[in-house]
């Protein structure tokens, strides 16, 4: 079977094969029953329908293709935006992590400086307390010596009293207290008691020989004395 194409105008006629209408219905109008003008009109209408169908098909296909391309472009744009947003989130998290790390380092350094300053302050305070306590221990000895010296001055009125023998006795007593370091806890409490001012009356300072106790001590003056008086006395004996 051979087919001769027309001129493309949709009006040219082409020979139809013999079995073209073989399987059609019995009431279908064949070209043989039509005149030439009507056959031309049928061919033109058929060609137009075919061309219009192809145009619609092509238009639909082009529209579908454009829509597919547009959808693909939108999908790519959304993917690019998502990737950009994801990168921004990762960059923000990285910056926050760096900022948090720097903040932790600053806090750690500040904490170390604070700890060092606090340790230095406590060490200085402890050293001052120890020195004060050592001084207090010395003051306790000086205070006891001072109280004994007051009684000693009063006993100088007695012609039989020897100041040199009293000094030697006090030196022996002071040498016996060389291990006073082990008595730190009780001494601390006694320091607080001994340095409390003792009120006295005029009759106390002018007491006679019965005012002194067996250790040669008298009542403590109202103002606590913290320095030995024996180092400042120039007595001609």
TrEMBL record:
Residues 206-225 are annotated as: Disordered. Residues 207-217 have a biased composition (Acidic residues). This is DUF1204 domain-containing protein. It comes from Brassica oleracea var. oleracea.
């Amino acid at each position: 079977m051979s087919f001769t194409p027309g001129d493309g105008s949709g009006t040219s006629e082409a020979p139809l094969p013999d079995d073209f209408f073989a399987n059609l219905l019995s009431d279908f109008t064949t070209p043989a029953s039509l005149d030439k003008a009507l056959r031309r009109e049928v061919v033109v209408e058929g060609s137009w329908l075919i061309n219009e169908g192809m145009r619609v098909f092509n238009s639909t296909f082009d529209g579908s293709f454009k829509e597919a391309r547009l959808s693909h472009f939108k999908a790519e744009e959304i993917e690019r935006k998502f990737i950009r947003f994801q990168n921004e989130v990762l960059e923000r998290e990285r910056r926050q992590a760096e900022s948090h790390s720097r903040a932790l380092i600053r806090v750690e350094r500040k904490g170390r400086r604070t700890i060092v300053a606090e340790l230095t302050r406590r060490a200085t305070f402890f050293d001052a307390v120890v020195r004060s306590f050592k001084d207090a221990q010395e003051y306790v000895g000086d205070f006891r010596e001072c109280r004994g010296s007051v009684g000693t001055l009063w006993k100088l009125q007695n012609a039989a009293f020897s100041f040199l023998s009293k000094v030697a006795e006090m030196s022996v007593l002071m040498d016996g207290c060389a291990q006073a370091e082990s008595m730190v806890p009780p001494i601390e409490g006694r320091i607080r008691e001994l340095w409390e001012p003792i009120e006295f009356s005029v009759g106390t300072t002018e007491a006679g020989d019965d005012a002194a106790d067996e250790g040669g001590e008298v009542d403590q003056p109202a103002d606590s004395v913290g320095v030995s008086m024996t180092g400042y006395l120039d007595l001609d004996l």
